[in-house]
Amino acid sequence: MTLNPAWRAYRPWLSVVTVSLPLFLLWAFGMQSQPARVMRYPTAGLKFVMAAGLGVGLVSVAGIVRLWFFRCPRCGGLFHQKSIFTSVPRLGAGCPRCGLEKWQDPTGASP
Ligand SMILES: [Zn+2]
């Protein structure tokens, strides 16, 4: 199955979030389980790990925001929510306006 061109901008960001979010959560769990005295005087290695983890977290947030505001390839509305202000993002479901499902051809042909 070839990916419809309309979804080419979507898939890389989905991959970014799929990889970075679990890494960031793992990092956050690892950091919070460090003893306080280790965190008070971090070694160069620990400083690197802290910076890298924060970087991964920022990338993850960027990916989530990008997916959150992804526009439906068919109707141009927000794909994961009805409104920026009033609704919680719906992941996995189709477009709340036109019903286009994820990965489906927006021109109307079968997926
Ligand atoms: Zn739509």
Description:
This protein has 111 residues and is mainly alpha-helical. It has a domain at 5-68. Helix content is 48%, strand content 0%. The protein contains three helices and no strands. It has helices spanning 10-32, 36-40, 44-68. Helix 1 packs antiparallel against helix 3. The model has no long low-confidence stretch (mean pLDDT 87). The site of zinc ion has 8 residues, from loops.
Q: Secondary-structure map with pairings?
A:
Layout: H1 10-32, H2 36-40, H3 44-68
Helix pairs in contact: 1-3
The structure holds zinc ion.
Helix content: 40-55%
Strand content: under 5%
Q: N- to C-terminal separation?
A: 9 Å
Rg, Cα atoms, Å: 19 Å
Brief summary:
The protein is mainly alpha-helical and 111 residues long. The chain has helices at 10-32, 36-40, 44-68.
Features:
single chain; 111 residues; mainly alpha; 48% helix; binds zinc ion
